[in-house]
Amino acid sequence: MSSLEPLAAYGLTCNVMQVISFASETAPVCKVIFETGTLDPSLVKRTAGLSEALTSLGDLLDSAPKPMNSDDQKLLDVAANETSLTQSEIAGIEDDSLRRFVEAVSQHKDKHR
Q1: What is the distance between the alpha carbons of residues 91 and 95, in angstroms, rounded to a whole number?
Q2: Which residue has the higher pLDDT, 11 or 113?
Q3: What count of other Cβ atoms lies within 10 Å of the Cβ of residue 80?
Q4: Fewest C-beta in 10 Å: which of 15, 52, 86, 111?
Q5: Pick the residue with more confidence: 67 or 1?
Q6: At what angle do helices 70-92 and 42-62 cross, to 10 degrees?
Q7: pLDDT digits (tens, 9 = 90+) for 6-60
């Protein structure tokens, strides 16, 4: 990444690791919802934290120094696209969608008792 400044590259790496960390914390929550049919109250905090991390990552990607060589630009485009897709998915999991998800999981669990 010849055209990215070392500090910007470090910041990007930290943001990506934070996103991975939040994702790994979310998997056990899904298991709890499936097993108990109730929502883990910490999910709201985690979702807000993930949204904040993604916003920070998007800002960092937008502020990457330009011009870039083609490899750096491809990497930046992939990161920006994935960040955008993830933000869209998070936006789709708001209270109403989450409520419907919890209801569906509870119904599924009741069928298998």
Answers
A1: 10
A2: 11
A3: 15
A4: 111
A5: 67
A6: 150
A7: 778 888 888 888 888 887 888 787 777 777 666 666 666 777 788 788 888 888 8
Token code pair at residue 97: 């969608």
Instruction: Give φ, ψ of 99 to 5 degrees.
Output: -60, -45
Q: Is the Cβ–Cβ distance between 83 and 54 less than 8 Å?
A: yes
Concatenating the DSSP letter of every residue in the chain gives -TTS-HHHHHHHHHHHHHHHHHHHHHHHHHHHHHHHSS--THHHHHHHHHHHHHHHHHHHHHT--SS--HHHHHHHHHHHHHHHHHHHHHHHSSHHHHHHHHHHHHHHHHHT-
Residues in the chain, overall count: 113
Tokens for 74, please give them.
């491809």
- Is the CB of residue 80 less than 8 Å from the CB of residue 55? no
Which amino acid makes up residue 76?
A: L
